[in-house]
Structure formats: structure tokens, C-alpha cells
Design a protein that fits this description.
single chain; alpha+beta; 7-stranded mixed sheet; 3-stranded antiparallel sheet; 14 helices; 14 strands; 18% strand
Length: 379
Amino acid sequence: MTSARLDITYQTLYSELAQRSLDESFTSEFSSNGRFVAVEVKDKKYWYFDTPKPEGGGQDRRYVGPVDDPEITKRVEAFKDLKADLKGRRRLVSTLTREAYLPRPLPMVGQVVEQLAKAGFFRMRGVLVGTVAYQCYSAVLGRRLDAVAMQTGDADFAQFHEISVAIKDSIPPILEVLRQVDQTFREVPSQADGRVSTQFVSRGNFKVEFLTPNQWSDDQAGKPVPMPALGGAAAFPLRFLDYLIYEPIRAVLLHGAGVPVLIPSPERYAIHKLIVGSRRKQDRDGTAKSAKDRLQARSIIEAMIENRQHADLASAFMEAWDRGDQWRAAIRTSIATYDDDFQTLLRTEFAKGVSEFGSNPANYDLADKSTDKPAPPSK
């Protein structure tokens, strides 16, 4: 295993940055002349922010987040006391990238994510996915991950369709947001429906894509899905994505003064990469993408095992395995591509976690292949 632990000093600095970044996002997004209100929707309460309309009376209402999210509710209650600390956060980002050598995204990547964050994408429970999200996990896990797997020329963003419909709010027109970064961004009309776009590309060939879980019939495959919260953008429906973006976690992208984002939990990201890594179509770059998927999965799994987070990995693994034959076949295929040492490590540690949940590792194909016996349970 190759993931070295970050010095505790840098882990502490990252935690401080994460706290300050979320604080600052409230001070910049919400003006002092507005107020937070709790609104009940389908038996669940959500925070909204009301501001007086400039003309004609009434209120403009913006979605903030669930009342039962303690981080959001804490900041709602302390809103008047929050102060932006831009220079201080920039120093923290500089220390973490220059001294701790944590990954910093390419300028274009960071600027695109930052503009979408300012536009409210993550406030509306959108999730950063793909390799840009992977760049955040070194700081989240407190360990260095494989740097080769961090190279990317695009940025992927996901949101549940039902959330996009339910929140009754939207970011500004997506092209306006992206053109604040690069005026050459343009829509790429969907091949299935040229009236809408799920992808946007700059003259320098930097691509931004919006995704949503395909929770409909196979007839919907490849057809863009209207997303009311995404400023006129549609989203490309993908199988397995609902598993990935369920219950995302907060993180900070190390760009500028730190950009607060939502990313998949590391255990879901790793297991999802095992699944999609075996299902890439054999196009001209499919093999390379598949190898990158499995490299990212391995790096996160090794880091979490060293952190003694085998139970978290096992929980995500069991959920995916229990979803059916296609899921199991994809996982088996990916695991079989690794060297024997990593396969043994994965089976042993996953089996420990499965046993801790009171289940039989053999039911999850976690037998020791050299002896054809179940891997030993945790003591």
C-alpha cells in the first residue's frame, strides 16, 4: 500500500479551512436585509432565504437546505455573526498545496467549480463527481492518493432530478455562469434532442457536463433530462449514479480561498469506480478511462483500509452487491483485474467489515481464493 498519512498539523489546517469556507459561503450568498424561514415540504422542513423585491413588494425566495442538516442550521442561527476571512483562507490553501503538497486543481477547473458554487449549485444539493472530486479525497482522508489518477480536462456535476424539481429555485443561466470564466463556452446540443444541452465546451476544449441518475426505464437511456434548477441545462441520465451521489459529504476544493463543495462519500466513490471501470465501452479512450477508474478505486480503498475504515467500505460494498446481478458481475470483473496481493487485501478487509455487520463474507464472494475458504472475520 502506498498512501502516506498527512501530518496532523495539515489535517487540522484543512478542517479549519473547511469550517471557514462554509461560513464564508453564507456571508457571500445571503444579504443582511433578508431572513431565513423554515418551510415544510412533504413532511420535511427546509431552510429558505427571503429578501424584499426591489420593486412592487413581496419577497424573493431562495432554497438553502434541509433543516435537519446540523451544519446548515448552525450557520442559519449564527448568520449575523459570520465574517468572511478571505485572506486567511487563501493562506491556508497556500500552505496545504505548497507545504503539504495536497492537490490543487488546474486554474480552469477551479474557476468553473468556484463559479458554479457562487451560483448556488451546491446549495441546491448538486454534487461534484468524477476526477475533480477525486482530487478532494487526499485532504478528506488525511492520506496521499495516487497523483496519476488526478489528471483531467473536464468537470462533471450531478443532481437528482427529483431534487432539481422540488426545490423551486435555479442557478442563473448556465452559459452566463460559465462565461464568467471563459467567454468561449458554448452549448453542445444533445444528439438525442438538439433543443437542449447537457454539455458545454470552451474553445480550449474544456468540457463541463451535467449528469443525473437514470431511474426510469431503459427507454430513457441517452435522452437528456430537463433539470429546472440548472439554469437551462439538461442532464445526461446514467445508471449507477443514484448510488454514487446518495448522502454526499462536504469538502473543500483547494482553489483560491477554498471552494466548499459536495462530493460523494469516499467509500461510495471507490465502489462506484469498481463498477463503472468494468463497464466502459471500448471506444478510443475507453480502456484508458477504465484503467483510471480502477486506479482511483484502489487508491481510495488502500487509504481507507490504512485508516481502519473497513466497515465503511464494507457497508458501501454490501449495498452495491445486494442491488443485483449486473452490479455483482461488474464488481467481480473489476476486482479480477488487480494483482493477487491487492485482491487478498481487499477480500480480507471487506470480509472484516461484513462480519462486523453480522453477515457472512461468503455471501459476498469474499472467500480467500487461495484456500477457497471465507476470509477471516474481525477479532
